[in-house]
């Protein structure tokens, strides 16, 4: 199965995303920050992973939504995202997940809110990204292990296990 670890982001904080809807831009339905994407992983590996993830001890914390941006670049836009600002413990959670999963790379905490296939006016889209002000805070009380099932080109996320923070 395809699996990933994520922090869910409240939908109400992402209401700005609908402002970017246009032909060639797909606004996503489920908002989360991926901590680790595994791709294909066996049931046995999932069971072992659950045992290890249960050992993570990080306090509950707050995240703030901040700037907007695009990946991979302003010349080639595939994704639009909102950044997350850590209040302290996200880095520790990322570190502990990385130690368990054997992946300690640095990344910019973000939530993808749109997938971009084509743009009629890239300049206008980028201006909107740069001008849009977003703010909001949410409490992180857990992280989750999900299965990602592809159906008709769309990913459905099925909860495997939720891990409460301390």
Give an account of the 3D structure:
It contains three helices and nine strands, in the order βββαββαβαβββ. By secondary structure, the protein is of the alpha+beta class. It has a single domain, classed as Cyclic phosphodiesterase (Cyclic Phosphodiesterase, Chain: A, Alpha-Beta Complex). The chain is globular, with a radius of gyration of 16 Å.
Question: CATH top level?
Answer: Alpha Beta
Estimate nothing, just give the exact number of structural domains: 1
Low-confidence segments: none
Strand order of the largest sheet: 2-6-5-4-7
- Can you tell me the overall shape? globular
In brief:
This protein has helices at residues 43-53, 90-101, 122-131, and strands spanning 2-8, 25-27, 32-40, 61-72, 77-86, 110-116, 136-140, 142-151, 154-164.
What structural keywords apply?
166 residues; alpha+beta; Cyclic Phosphodiesterase, Chain: A; five-stranded antiparallel β-sheet; four-stranded antiparallel β-sheet; 9 strands
């Amino acid at each position: 199965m395809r699996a990933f670890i994520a922090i869910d982001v409240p939908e109400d904080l992402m209401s700005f995303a609908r402002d970017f809807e246009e032909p060639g831009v797909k606004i996503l339905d489920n908002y989360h920050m991926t901590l680790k994407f595994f791709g294909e992983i066996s049931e046995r590996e999932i069971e072992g992973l659950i045992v290890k993830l249960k050992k993570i001890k990080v306090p509950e914390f707050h995240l703030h939504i901040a700037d907007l941006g695009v990946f991979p670049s302003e010349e080639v836009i595939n994704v639009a995202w909102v950044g997350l600002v850590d209040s302290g413990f996200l880095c520790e959670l990322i570190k502990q997940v990385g130690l368990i999963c054997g992946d300690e790379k640095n990344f910019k905490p973000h939530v993808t809110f749109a997938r971009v296939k084509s743009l009629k006016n890239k300049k206008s889209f980028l201006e909107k990204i740069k001008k849009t002000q977003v703010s909001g805070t949410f409490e992180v009380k857990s992280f989750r292990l999900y299965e990602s099932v592809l159906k008709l080109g769309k990913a459905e996320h099925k909860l495997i296990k939720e891990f409460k923070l301390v």
